[in-house]
Design goal:
109 residues, alpha+beta, Alpha-Beta Plaits, 4-stranded antiparallel β-sheet, 4 helices, 42% helix, GYD domain-containing protein
Length: 109
């Protein structure tokens, strides 16, 4: 399965909800990922630009984007960004493939 990193920020209503009922949100997020065949690898609450950083596995990027959209639709988060992550070994293979394509692209103009 592919690895993804999701960054999210709570909305004002999301923060209010957490203050009214403080809880670990791993279970509800895992329940959503279960529906698409994924899993939470790690979930962190952070400070700074993002309130949440999650590492997850899912069969396809569309699955993680759909989960993020479902969470955003609840109004509890104001921003969700999901990116694909590759291990060092996986990225070596990507770089090798890129090397075979070098010179094959004709730029405009």
């Amino acid at each position: 399965m592919a690895l993804f990193i999701t960054y999210a920020s709570y909305s004002q209503s999301g923060i209010q909800g957490l203050m009214q009922k403080p809880e670990d949100r791993t279970g509800p997020i895992q329940a959503l990922l279960d529906k698409v065949g994924g899993r939470v690898v790690a979930l962190y609450m952070t400070t700074g630009t993002n309130d949440v950083v999650m590492i997850s596995e899912a069969p396809d990027g569309a699955d993680t984007v759909a989960v993020g959209m479902a969470v955003a639709a609840s109004g509890s988060v104001s921003k969700v960004e999901t990116v694909r992550a590759w291990t060092g070994a996986e990225f070596v293979a990507i770089a090798k493939k890129a090397g075979t394509l070098t010179g094959a692209y004709t730029p405009p103009g």
